[in-house]
Design goal:
Elements lengths: L1 E6 L2 H10 L7 E6 L9 E2 L7 H10 L4 E4 L2 H6 L1 H7 L4 E2 L3 H8 L1 H10 L7 E4 L2 H8 L6 E5 L8 E4 L2 H12 L11 E5 L5 E8 L4 E3 L4 E2 L2 E3 L3 E4 L4 E4 L6 H21 L6 E10 L2 E8 L7 H4 L7 H10 L13 E9 L13 E2 L7 E3 L2 E4 L2 E4 L3 E9 L2 H12 L2 E2 L3 E2 L6 H9 L1
Parallel strand pairs: 1-2, 1-4, 2-3, 4-5
Antiparallel strand pairs: 6-9, 7-8, 7-9, 10-11, 10-16, 12-15, 13-14, 15-18, 16-17, 18-23, 18-25, 19-24, 20-23, 21-22
Helix pairs in contact: 7-8
The protein binds adenosine monophosphate and glycine.
Glycine binds next to loops.
């Protein structure tokens, strides 16, 4: 069987490594992938947003199943185009991917179907937004409507900062057209939980929960990043809370999308905040999270391809989706300076003993030599019978990876461990 995976980061590497456990798969193509996954997949120089070329490649190479992993091609309609060309694939169609593609859509959906989320107002006029901010509660949260590489959210601690955020999005267009319309919402507090789920539009099966670490530096200091490390499961996400989320958030969301004629199939990611008033949705993503996938998939005991196909075919209710009882940790190693200016092109050495546990995000092959080519270079992971063991092993594995200018957080999972001790 021939599989193609669209995307080129650590998440895609984790998906590819998991798929490879299925012995019926003869070849996996990564479009475009990255040099760090060359041993696991055949790299094809087609960009994640070049849908026309993806379809052509899939048809010409008689691809049996395609996995579209990143947000951009999903929101642009890659699944629709591939399906129309007769290629079976994993991921939501364009109509459903809007749940991530437009914050206004997702906020209005939650309001209409009583799904708990932060209070909000939508603005398409800068003047109206600025006027609203005169009296809005502070801190407040300003969000660009469209995709903004995960950076379209500004938490403003003062009224001045809130106004600056509005001007930067609506006047200076720092996020392009994504910021033409904005959402201003209530600032919520509480532990954050990521819950990825498989769904075929009828059944929703949550995966093991996880916790991201968004800030660049230890102690949750420094700038926001794409994620500096993850742990699974998330200790704040108890069985009781999971049950509540199923009843008040997960099932209502699947039903709401059906009612809107936007049936969602694929991986629906719930970004949750556990507030004093119960769990609330911070964001939906129409895809696997990065770097959440790097800790969730290693704990999946069922065959990933079988589960993915069940979401496409509508047979998830009859499909076993089993996760191990253990834990997994991922430490992201980045280039010094990330998320701002950083240097690339340094030789990257990954010890053979840990290669299985490393998911490469930013690297390229230069005359056969693997070199760094991105801010977040890779994620080093490991599993254990509990979080403490998984973290100890993951940090030990970090010692087998070297490249110049590397930096990583030393406190991934520290909060989670503390929460476990307090319980
Ligand atoms: P997002 O890109 O929507 O995931 O937002 C990025 C981060 O901003 C989230 O992971 C939260 O930490 C934070 N955030 C987003 N919305 C809110 C909110 N309403 N209240 C507090 N923090 C928020
Ligand atoms: N880790 C957050 C995301 O994938 O959007």
């Amino acid at each position: 069987m021939k599989i193609m995976v669209v995307g080129g980061g650590g998440r895609e590497h984790a998906i590819i490594k998991k798929l490879k456990e299925n012995k019926n798969i003869t070849e996996i193509f990564a479009l475009p992938g990255n040099g760090g996954m060359a041993e696991d997949a055949t790299l094809v120089n087609i960009g994640a947003k070049d849908i026309e070329a993806q379809v052509k490649f899939a048809v010409e190479n008689k691809i049996d199943y395609a996995v579209v992993a990143p947000d951009d091609p999903l929101v642009l309609g890659a699944v629709d185009a591939l399906t129309a060309a007769g290629i079976s694939c994993f991921g939501p169609n364009k109509a459903a991917a809007i749940i991530e593609g437009s914050k206004v859509f997702s906020k209005n959906l939650m309001k209409k179907y009583n799904i708990p989320t932060a209070q909000y107002e939508v603005f398409s006029s800068k003047e109206d937004a600025l006027k609203y901010l005169e009296t809005a509660p502070i801190p407040t949260v300003i969000k660009a409507d469209g995709l903004a590489l995960g950076k379209g959210v500004i938490i403003a601690e003062t009224r001045e900062a809130a106004k600056e955020a509005v001007i930067s999005m609506m006047e200076d267009k720092v996020f392009g057209d994504s910021g033409s319309t904005i959402v201003i919402e209530e600032f919520l507090t509480g532990p954050e939980v990521s819950v990825l789920s498989f769904t075929d539009g009828k059944t929703v099966i949550p995966m093991v929960s996880s916790q991201d670490h968004k800030r660049a530096l230890d102690g949750d200091k420094g700038l926001n990043t794409g994620g500096m490390g993850t742990v699974a499961p998330n200790p704040y996400y108890t069985d009781e809370i999971a049950k509540e989320c199923m009843e008040t958030i997960f099932i209502p969301t699947i039903n709401a999308m059906n009612s809107e004629n936007r049936t969602f199939k694929g991986c629906l990611y719930f970004g949750l905040m556990l507030t004093e008033k119960g769990p609330k949705v911070i964001e939906y993503n129409c895809r696997f999270g990065d770097p959440e996938t790097q800790v969730v998939l290693p704990l999946l005991e069922s065959d990933l391809l079988t589960v993915m196909k069940a979401t496409t075919n509508g047979t998830l209710a009859e499909t076993e989706v089993k996760f191990s009882k253990g834990a997994c940790a991922c430490v992201v190693m980045a280039s010094n300076g990330y998320p701002q200016k950083y240097e690339s092109g340094y030789e990257l050495k990954i010890g053979k003993d840990v290669a299985d546990k490393v998911y490469v995000a930013g690297a390229k092959l230069d005359n056969g030599v693997l070199k760094t080519a991105g801010g977040r270079v890779l994620g080093v992971t490991d599993t254990g019978c509990d979080l403490k063991e998984a973290l100890k092993k993951a940090y030990k594995n970090v010692e087998s990876v070297t490249f110049e200018n590397a930096f990583y957080r030393k406190d991934i999972g520290a909060k989670a461990l503390k929460a476990l001790e307090e319980n």
